[in-house]
Write a structure and sequence with these properties.
Length: about 400
């Protein structure tokens, strides 16, 4: 049975990993779970995933690090919705649909920056960072309009633990703490609210669920990644904890055995495990806090068989030049690993999905994170939206 929640005690995590190392075990679900191959292929299902999960559940539209000061913005497309996030003068963040109220043109190109006003490239209508209409080109000839009815369409938005969450439907409200289901303090330990951007990379991958399957999979580490990540971490030895649909997976590093001869009060757990925190449905954080981390933002589409991933590399504000250089070098390494190992394999899986070779995929007891992920996808597709934002705190990987 996988614990649904755990205190943020990294000593406890490595203690559990040591037990698994000695016993030849890993955190496990209660049984094998089958997922129909059509779940990865069916265009109607994919459209429902985009609507229910990505457009009507909270998603991450920016990191706190993308918006370091008032006027900072990030523009991104998620599930076909262009989103503009802007840091306000009072330090809060607001999110808008990136569409001019005149004729719908996107007012800001995708990316990050800082601006006092945003001007539509089509007819030069302009807006301030609060979304208010500032000016209409050739106004005397345009005609009468009510400026307060022409502000940018605002999205429900909240900032927690270094992430900016929004729901891509302006008519929907949400409680971010309810959505995180107690996960906030766990994410806080990473310190993502006090880092700065170092670099971003964009990768093309397979269906978003094929790509996500790799985020929480410790079974493949010393097989697919035997000459890369597998030199540092062991496969098939992991802990998996969950808060609603969100998960924290810890992998045993190859030096874990050293802790057997060190008193527990002297442990430095971060050097003996690798952590991946996932924020459902599309973000993973690789790293144990400290100097540098990689935040991967998985973005489905534009078709069911493709996705793209933005790898955002962050460093602490007081990082030395040597630490920044090391983080940049690791960014190159991780881009290669994901492109040439994870996504190359994933795209191969995608190419074979429709062949008929498999009618279902099996996730073993030793793949609890994958089981939980797919069961939460099914849950959010099946249940009314009004209840989907209040995830019960129980072990779905062990559900009937």
């Amino acid at each position: 049975m996988i614990p649904e929640t755990r205190p943020n005690d990294w000593d406890e995590i490595v203690a559990r990993l040591l037990v698994h190392l000695d016993a030849g075990t890993t955190d496990s679900a209660d049984g094998v779970h089958a997922v129909d191959v059509s779940d990865y292929l069916d265009a109607d299902r994919w459209a429902r995933e985009m609507d229910r999960i990505f457009r009507h559940s909270p998603v991450v539209v920016a990191l706190t690090a993308h918006l370091p000061e008032p006027g900072s913005y990030r523009s991104i497309d998620l599930a076909g919705i262009p989103v503009l996030s802007v840091r306000q003068a009072d330090g809060s963040v607001r999110a808008f649909i990136n569409a001019c109220r005149h004729r719908g043109a996107q007012i800001v190109a995708h990316g990050t920056g800082k601006a006092r006003r945003f001007t539509c490239p089509y007819h030069a209508w302009s807006y301030d960072g609060s979304g208010a209409l500032l000016g209409v080109a050739g106004r005397p000839t345009f005609g009468d309009i009510a400026d307060n009815h022409q502000q940018l369409t605002e999205l429900p938005c909240a900032e927690r633990s270094g992430f900016v969450f929004a729901v891509l439907d302006p008519a929907v409200s949400f409680d971010v703490d309810e959505w995180l289901a107690g996960y906030g303090p766990i994410l806080d330990a990473l310190g993502l609210d006090d880092v700065e951007l170092l670099d971003e990379r964009e990768l093309i991958g397979p269906n978003w669920k094929v790509a996500y399957d790799g985020y929480v999979d410790g079974y493949h580490l010393d097989i697919l990644h035997k000459d890369t990540l597998g030199k540092d971490v062991m496969g098939n030895i992991m802990t998996c904890d969950a808060w609603g649909p969100h998960q924290r997976v810890a992998f045993a590093r190859r030096n874990l055995h050293e802790l057997r001869d060190i008193p527990r009060e002297e442990w430095q757990p971060g050097g003996h495990m690798g952590l991946v925190h996932t924020v459902f449905p599309h973000v993973s954080v690789a790293g144990n806090g400290g100097t540098g981390m990689m935040v991967s933002q998985l973005i489905p589409g534009p078709t069911p068989d493709r996705s793209r991933t933005i790898q955002t590399h962050v460093v602490t504000r007081n990082a030395t030049e040597e630490e920044r250089a090391a983080t940049a070098q690791r960014a190159d390494f991780l881009e290669w690993v994901v492109n040439e190992e994870d996504y190359k394999t994933g795209l191969g899986i995608q190419a074979a999905l429709a062949s008929g070779a498999n009618t279902e995929f099996l996730f073993g007891r030793n793949e609890p994170g994958n089981q939980r992920f797919h069961q939460w996808v099914d849950r959010l597709l099946a249940e009314p939206f009004a209840t989907s934002l209040a995830p019960p705190r129980r072990n779905l990987a062990a559900a009937d």
